[in-house]
Design goal:
Length: about 160
C-alpha cells in the first residue's frame, strides 16, 4: 500500500511505496525537543521505499544516545521535519514522521520506546509493548520485517 505526505508548505513531498517495517512512538528527549511534543511517531522504512519529490530537504546532525550521528531532514522553506537517519541502525533506512502523512490515521504505533523519559501524564494502553530504551531488533521485529531488514543490510554490502 502506498502513502503520500509532505511538509507544511508543500515544497517537500514524498511517496512511501511499501508498508513500514515498524512504527515506533519515541519518547526520548531529542524527539520531544525536535517535535516540541510528548513523543514522535516514526515509520521505519528502507530508504528505497521513500520516494522524495519537490524540494530537496535540508539536514543537520545531532549525536544520538548511541554516540552515532542522528541526521534530521527538514523542509528548507517551512522547517517541517520529515524524516531522519540513525547511523547506528543497520542497513540504509529512514525514520519518516507519521505526522507528515496526508492521512496520518493510516498508521498506528506498534511499540513505545525510550519510555524512561515519557511524560508522566501520558498513559500508554496496557496491551501496547513498551521499552525503557530501545528494543533488540532481532527479538522484537515482526519476522517479515526482520527479513526485509536483513535483505537491506545485505544490499548495502
Ligand atoms: Zn515546506
Ligand atoms: Zn527519539
Amino acid at each position: 500500500m502506498s502513502r503520500d505526505g509532505g511538509c507544511s508548505c508543500g515544497a517537500v513531498r514524498y511517496k512511501l511505496t511499501a508498508d513500514p517495517l515498524i512504527v515506533n512512538a519515541c519518547h526520548c528527549r531529542d524527539c520531544q525537543r525536535i517535535t516540541g511534543s510528548a513523543f514522535v511517531l516514526n515509520m521505519w522504512y528502507e530508504r528505497r521505499f521513500v520516494e522524495a519529490s519537490g524540494e530537496q530537504p535540508k539536514s543537520f546532525k545531532l549525536t544520538a544516545g548511541t554516540g552515532n550521528p542522528h541526521e534530521l531532514f527538514f523542509c528548507g522553506s517551512c522547517a517541517t521535519y520529515v524524516w531522519s537517519k540513525y547511523y547506528a541502525a543497520p542497513g540504509d533506512t529512514l525514520l519518516v514522521r507519521a505526522g507528515t502523512l496526508d492521512d496520518p490515521t493510516s498508521v498506528k504505533p506498534n511499540v513505545h520506546i525510550f519510555t524512561r523519559s515519557k511524560l508522566p501524564w501520558l498513559e500508554i494502553p496496557r496491551d501496547m509493548p513498551r521499552f525503557d530504551a530501545m528494543y533488540d531488533l532481532k527479538e522484537f521485529f515482526p519476522a517479515e520485517s526482520y527479513e526485509r531488514l536483513l535483505r537491506n543490510i545485505e544490499e548495502q554490502k
